[in-house]
Design goal:
about 5% strand, mainly alpha
């Protein structure tokens, strides 16, 4: 076996090792993302359950009323699928008109200069 072949085989093994390490890193990232999404879904389910319990306790609404409203909302979208078909907005980041910093979607003010944004936040923003 020629010396060039040994060097080439060594580089090949090195690249194979890098590919395996990269796949493991990718798998870890995917697991973290999945875990984060699971936590957010579970938190949202808890919020929905708490809201539903409050509504039932403080009104005369029942599950039939809820099902009717779900159907009404779905029909507004044009089809019954058991879910809302909204995509996550991919808006460009907002820039603070006072200092030029990027405005966070989490807050209604600039974290650098205190400028108050006019955008409306969800009433559930603080529950994240």
């Amino acid at each position: 076996m020629a010396l060039g072949d040994l060097g080439q085989n060594s580089r090949k093994r090195g690249l194979e090792g890098e590919i395996i390490a990269s796949r493991k890193d990718t798998q870890l990232v995917l697991e973290k993302i999945t875990h984060s999404l699971d936590e957010r879904v579970n938190r949202l389910a808890l919020i929905c359950e708490a809201m539903w319990q409050l509504i039932k306790e403080q009104t005369e609404l029942n599950e039939d009323d809820l099902k009717k409203r779900i159907t009404k909302i779905e029909l507004q979208e044009g089809r019954l699928e058991g879910k809302i078909n909204r995509t996550v907005s991919r808006e460009l980041p907002q820039i603070c008109p006072e200092c030029g910093a990027r405005l966070s979607r989490k807050y209604n003010h600039c974290q650098f200069c205190g400028y108050k944004s006019q955008k409306k936040l969800s009433p559930f923003q603080s529950l994240k």
